[in-house]
Design a protein that fits this description.
The chain has about 375 residues and is mostly beta strands. Helices cover about 10% and strands about 45% of the residues. The chain contains three helices and 24 strands. Strands 1, 3, 4, 5, 7, 8 and 10 form a seven-stranded mixed β-sheet that branches. It has a four-stranded antiparallel β-sheet with strand order 2-11-6-9, with no helix packed on it.
Amino acid sequence: MPVRNLTLTLILFISCFAVTLLNAQPSGRVNFDKDWKFTLGKPNEMKAPQAPVSEWRSVDLPHDWSIEGEFSAKNPATNGGGSLPGGIAWYAKTINIDGPIKGNKLFIEFDGVYMNSTVWVNGYEVGTRPYGYATFQYDITPFVQTGNNSLVVRVDNSKQPNSRWYSGSGIYRHVWLITTPEIHFTQNGTYFTTPVITDREATVNASASVLNETFLPADFEVRVSIYDAAGSLVSEQKQAKVALGESVATISQQLKIANPHLWDVENPYLYKAVTEIYKDNELLQSYTNNIGIRYFHFDADKGFSLNGRPTKILGVCNHHDLGCLGAALNERALERQLQIMKSMGCNAIRTSHNPPAPELLDMCDKMGFLVMDEAFDCWYLK
């Protein structure tokens, strides 16, 4: 059961700010980066500072507080971590819900917080995420009400050194507020593979995980439509399904694409797959994926081939930060990095040494980069 923190509640009740209107409608996904409040904390501080939140500094996300600090050999991050300060910091924002909550679900999604983040909503502790590079999501429906709601995030990057590179500190990637109906896709709930590819036809396997958060069985239909780069419909399928109450149903469908355009590093052709949930012919939720059709093979003697052609992997190991700009995600700066690497002949990225921002993977798909998406680096402190 979440623990009530009366101190946090009192601070935010006194000071309302940066109201974002949210119409609680199905399939809403709202960028939640603007108009946060920020303050640095003290070592081992577990409750927000007593000063009213209105006195905290205003910031937009993504935000990296370490890059704003002083370089010093005395900083615990050491040279390997950029010789910049870590520490503890607090972020806060008001969620204004303009509409009914009943029959809807509300999620807060963080693309990345470095690191050891804890989230409170209206004074209730929602959860803690130690790892600094993974996207994570909380269901905050039980903690919110129509009107103003307080959101507080504690970020703890005080235990240093914890990297062999510059990590940055803070909510350094995008934040999203997501509304769905009670029957909805799970997080990252759509998945596509291309098991069979010929010049004449490609088979696309589509998988969707749908969560029924009502207490009763529910019948619904999942429709998958695939469009080519010109926007023309090239394949579609639909399948009816029944999900028991409070359970996940997985729907698998197979689609065929005639005369497929193959994705490769020189011509990164992408199709658009739209997956939709319908109930009684009413659209509940829609999700879009870009998909590339390609096949590859590794051979001990002949090396790597892409779509049947020998291909040299000309890659780089690329950390997530943006040099002097710090770790805060900046799409144009990230795109510029990739454009420069592409002009040098690079066609592959190793995400040293952690999952990257979702935007990097999207850009690599569109610009023609192979990706080795690393999970984590091992680090000990004794």
